[in-house]
Description:
The chain is mainly α.
Amino acid sequence: MWQRMDSWDRGLMLQLQRLPAPGFWRPAARWLSLSGDGAGYLLMALLIAELGGSRGHLFLLAGLAAYALELPLYWLLKNTLKRARPCHNLGGVVAAVDPHDKFSLPSGHSAAAFLFATLLAWYWPPLAPLAYGWATLVGLSRVLLGVHYPGDIVAGASLGLWAANMGLFWVL
């Protein structure tokens, strides 16, 4: 089963790498990927806590609890599974950004983006479509930039959704 999933993942990765007009979508993918970098989450959460009243404070507490679960589990999975990044392991795939480390599974950008989106959706439901749309684009950007397989994105999103729900459970 793992081999079939890996084969599908590699095939989809190669198809996505052949998208036309990389001069158009690659800059957008870089920007989206950058929007999912770690430091921004804490700054946004602090701003939301300051401006969002009691919901903002609960958002911050749920986020701190969720990231306290997500980050060590992400690190453990990545360093246990040791799946090489497509740009290091798949001919024809070149990274358009410098990856933070050499392993790809799960996607940390996707985990963090889906965690944040889930918390936003919980506390401010009208933001759900925008938040989940952005999180999905962050994950897609990592594939288009050659540093993650599509399956890495699914695994990261699943981790982020789980951690967000555990953070919400802890706060509620």
